[in-house]
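Q: I'm writing up a methods section and want to include an example of the input and output format. Could you take the sequence below and give the corresponding predicted structure tokens, formatted cleanly so I can copy it straight into the document?
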Amino acid sequence: MTYNEKIVEYYDLLYSKKDYAGEVEYIDSVIPNILGTRILDIGCGSGSHAILLANKNPKLILGVDISEEM
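A: Here is the clean output for your methods example:
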């Protein structure tokens, strides 16, 4: 396993109890019907929110993070 893969693995482990699904449902309630929208996920980490948001069928999801490993 590379150094970069280790960083992502530890990040996911540290945030394994985070309620990503609940947060995505909240986003969906604030921005209803994201079908066809574009989403910019700033500070996306390993992309857990983006993966769940993809199920809502937006037009585009772009995740950016300061960490190259993420």
